[in-house]
Amino acid sequence: MERTFAMIKPDAVGKNVAGEIIAMIQKAGFNVLGMKQTTMSKKQAEAFYEVHAERPFYGELTEFMSSGPVVALALEKDNAVVDYRKLIGATNPAEAEEGTVRKLYASSIGENAVHGSDSVENGQIEISFFFSRWELEL
Ligand code: DAT
Ligand code: MG
């Protein structure tokens, strides 16, 4: 079994569709190992997205990600990283396939409803950003 990290972003939590998105994740066969709603500080959002620090949208991104509650999820499934990226669709909802989470719930490339890890290694780093070993019963 492989793990990945998912997050429901402030736009989707604010629209009260977190439950619908979690249902899509579970129906797609992911096991929820850990789940928590929390609000990131600007500093926490900056640390989480540190790889994007040099990108022009870093300020906007970290402002948005700290603007309200998020739901963080540690997920497990065979091929979890790739399968979750397929489920959420392209970063830009205008390019996301029909039936994907971002096609259904994202409003723009910046406010795009969900986060997903891009590799197994980053998934582990991101899970440990939000969840302790204790919480995940390791
Ligand atoms: P993804 O979230 O699909 O992995 P990414 O890692 O390239 O996409 O970017 C991280 C987040 O940054 C993305 O979910 C939304 C924001 N973002 C990316 N490109 C952007 C852009 N051109 N303008 C504004 N925000 C952007
Ligand atoms: Mg990414």
User: Quick one: CATH class?
Assistant: Alpha Beta
CATH architecture level-2 label: 2-Layer Sandwich
Overall structural class, as computed from helix and strand content, comes to: alpha+beta
* Residue share in β-strands: 15-25%
Flag low-confidence runs: none
How can the largest sheet be summarized?
Answer: 4 strands, antiparallel
Main sheet strand line-up: 2-3-1-4
Structure explained in plain terms:
The protein has helices spanning 10-14, 18-27, 42-48, 58-65, 80-88, 101-105, 120-130, and strands spanning 2-8, 31-38, 70-77, 114-116. The longest helix is centred in the C-terminal third of the chain and has 11 residues, at 120-130. The model has no long low-confidence stretch (mean pLDDT 97). The protein contains seven helices and four strands; from the N terminus they run E-H-H-E-H-H-E-H-H-E-H. It has a four-stranded antiparallel β-sheet with strand order 2-3-1-4. It is of the alpha+beta class. It has one domain (2-133): Nucleoside diphosphate kinase-like domain (Alpha-Beta Plaits), CATH 3.30.70.141. The two termini are 14 Å apart. 2'-deoxyadenosine-5'-diphosphate (DAT) is lined by residues 52, 57, 61, 91, 109-110, 112, 115, 118.
Fold blueprint:
Layout: E1 2-8, H1 10-14, H2 18-27, E2 31-38, H3 42-48, H4 58-65, E3 70-77, H5 80-88, H6 101-105, E4 114-116, H7 120-130
Helix pairs in contact: 3-4
Bound molecules: 2'-deoxyadenosine-5'-diphosphate and magnesium ion.
Provide a quick synopsis of the model.
The chain is α+β, with helices and mostly antiparallel strands and 138 residues long. The chain has a single domain (2-133), classed as Nucleoside diphosphate kinase-like domain (Alpha-Beta Plaits, 2-Layer Sandwich).
